[in-house]
Design a protein that fits this description.
Number of helices: 7
CATH superfamily: HUPs
CATH class: Alpha Beta
Number of domains: 1
Strand order of the largest sheet: 3-2-1-4-5
CATH architecture: 3-Layer(aba) Sandwich
Mean pLDDT: 76
Number of strands: 5
Radius of gyration: 18 Å
Distance between the termini: 36 Å
Order of helices and strands: EHEHHHEHEHHE
Shape: elongated
Length: 175
C-alpha cells in the first residue's frame, strides 16, 4: 500500500517553468499534510575551469560572483525577489482552499526548509538531500529533449531515477 508522504523534496532549477512543478508539490503537500523541502543545486565548475576563470578575472572577483550567485538563488527561493511572486501566490491559493474546507486547522506554509547547495553532480546531491532530510518523494521538472539533446546533454531526471530509492514524480515541462 502506498502511504502518504510526510516530507516532499522539491528540486528546482529556478526556471520560470518551476512554478507549475511547484504547484504539484503544493497540491501533494495539501492532500497529504506533508512538509516541503525546497532544494536548488548549483553545478560546481571543474577545477581547471575554475582556475582559468580565476586567472582571467582574479580570485576576488570570481569569489564575489559565486557568492552573489548563491545569494541570488536563495533570494529567489525565499521570495525576496520579484520573480518569486508566482510561487508565493501558488502557495497562498492552495492554502486558502485548504483553510475554507477545514476552518479549525491553523494554516501555515508547507515549506519547512530552503536549501541552496553546490555539487559536481546535481542528481547525486538531490539523492543525498532526500535521504538526509527523510523525504518520502522527490518532485522535479524535466523538459522534453530532442535526440541530439539526449545524446549530448545531461538528463538529470534519468540520472536521479537510476540513483535513488526514493519515489520520483517527474513533471514534464513545456518548451
Amino acid at each position: 500500500m502506498i502511504q502518504k508522504p510526510k516530507r516532499i523534496l522539491f528540486a528546482s532549477d529556478l526556471s520560470t517553468n518551476m512554478k507549475e512543478v511547484f504547484k504539484h508539490a503544493v497540491s501533494l503537500s495539501t492532500l497529504s499534510d506533508a512538509g516541503i523541502i525546497v532544494l536548488h543545486v548549483m553545478e560546481e565548475a571543474g577545477k581547471n575551469s575554475e582556475r582559468r576563470v580565476q586567472r582571467a578575472f582574479g580570485e576576488t572577483l570570481y569569489n564575489t560572483l559565486r557568492s552573489e550567485q548563491k545569494a541570488g538563488a536563495r533570494n529567489l527561493l525565499t521570495g525576496k525577489n520579484v520573480d518569486a511572486l508566482g510561487i508565493k501566490q501558488a502557495i497562498a491559493g492552495f492554502l486558502k482552499d485548504r483553510e475554507s474546507s477545514q476552518p479549525d486547522i491553523e494554516v501555515s506554509s508547507p515549506i519547512e526548509k530552503i536549501l541552496v547547495t553546490e555539487s559536481k553532480s546535481i542528481a547525486d546531491e538531490i539523492t543525498r538531500t532526500a535521504v538526509e532530510e527523510g523525504c518520502d518523494i522527490i518532485i522535479m521538472g524535466c523538459k522534453h529533449q530532442s535526440f541530439i539533446e539526449t545524446a549530448i546533454g545531461e538528463n538529470i531526471a534519468r540520472k536521479l531515477l537510476k540513483r535513488t530509492s526514493v519515489p520520483v514524480l517527474v513533471v514534464p515541462l513545456l518548451k
